[in-house]
């Protein structure tokens, strides 16, 4: 039971909150609508001020909603517009805090997964993939996520997936080669295997041949073989990013090294990639699973050492094991080896 006066206070509080959020949305919307390369500096500055003045949660949700509405449409969005929007997120990610990029990335990846499964006819998938690609281009997310998405697309290997693989490789292929050439090579081998074992109607398609040619061009670092490939706009905006990011580094260390699986199951297992993020959910490891793993083999240890461990209140198997290892080792190298085991 909620007494009337408390209920009334809550309602006025909710109205006040709604009004504040509406005002905030209008302000952010106004800034995003005016966003372009020349005024990116002033707009990112104003956005940072808004972050300082409002709660981060409200700002993250408002910004993500507005950007998703602006960029994820049924028609293909201009690449330049996408880059400018993602560059803004990247600058805020480096200057305000990594939760800005993390919140936006999670929303984009979940929406991408949902639309991929739903077989929608529009260009939403391409638009979402472009957002993810540019988040990688501007050092918000690590190549690990891009490889996860490519592996997922290669494993399905239908016409739609082939189109998406081509789209992604055209945007970030050469950066992936620079970051992790071995992983790219493995991916190309897997794609070739899939193409060889695919159904006859897929094998004959020029699209599949074109995809394999694109992959070979990537492997051989031959940019001329990829039609319409132009690294100039991304490079230009990266230079602009370096001038606008306050910290002296290139921002590589604030990249989110997170896998596709972790992002999609964030509600179940928590967001470990955001420092200090709160999480209330089911325990990450079931008690039933953890019981058998508790038995640790530490070899034969004298009862005297075990008694010492008990006196020092080493009350779990793992604590006792570490204590015994430290007490019975000959020197630091021996202790190191045993602890590793």
From TrEMBL:
One of its GO terms (molecular function) is RNA binding. Belongs to the CWC22 family. Residues 25-222 form the MIF4G domain. Gene3D superfamilies: 1.25.40.180. The keyword Coiled coil applies. This is Nucleolar MIF4G domain-containing protein 1. GO terms for biological process: ribosomal small subunit biogenesis. It comes from Fregetta grallaria. May interact with EIF4A1, EIF4A2 and EIF4A3. Interacts with PPP1CA and PPP1CC. InterPro entries: ARM-type_fold, CWC22_splicing_factor, MIF4G-like_typ-3. It is found in: Nucleus, Nucleolus. It comes from the Eukaryota. Keywords: Coiled coil, Nucleus. The keyword Coiled coil applies. Plays a role in targeting PPP1CA to the nucleolus. Residues 181-208 form a coiled coil. Pfam families: MIF4G. GO terms for cellular component: nucleolus.
